[in-house]
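REQUEST FORM: STRUCTURE PREDICTION
Request ID: SP-0412
Submitted by: Lab K.M.
Chain count: 1
Length (residues): 85
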Amino acid sequence: MSSVAELPPSVAELIPMTLLRPGQSGTVDQVLGTGDLVHRLREMGLRRGARVEMIRPGTPCMVRLDGHTLGLRSNELTGILVRPS
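STATUS: Completed
RESULT:
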C-alpha cells in the first residue's frame, strides 16, 4: 500500500515547494526546518497562507511572492510544504 494513500487527504495534497513546476503556484501550508532558517523564511514572507509562484527551479530557485522575486537555495525550500493550485 502506498504511504500517500495512508495519509489524511489534507496532508497528502502537500508537496515540497521545490517540486513546483515553472509557472505553477501554490499556497504555503507549513515551514519546517531549524529555528533560524524558519525564522528567516517567515521574515521574508514565506509563512502559512502565502501565495507563491515558481519562476525557475534549481539552485538558486527563483520564486515570486507578493510581487517580489526571491532567489533561494533549493535546499532551503525543501522544508516549505505547499498546496499546489
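NOTES: Residues 18 and 57 are 7 Å apart (CA to CA).
Reviewed by: T.R.
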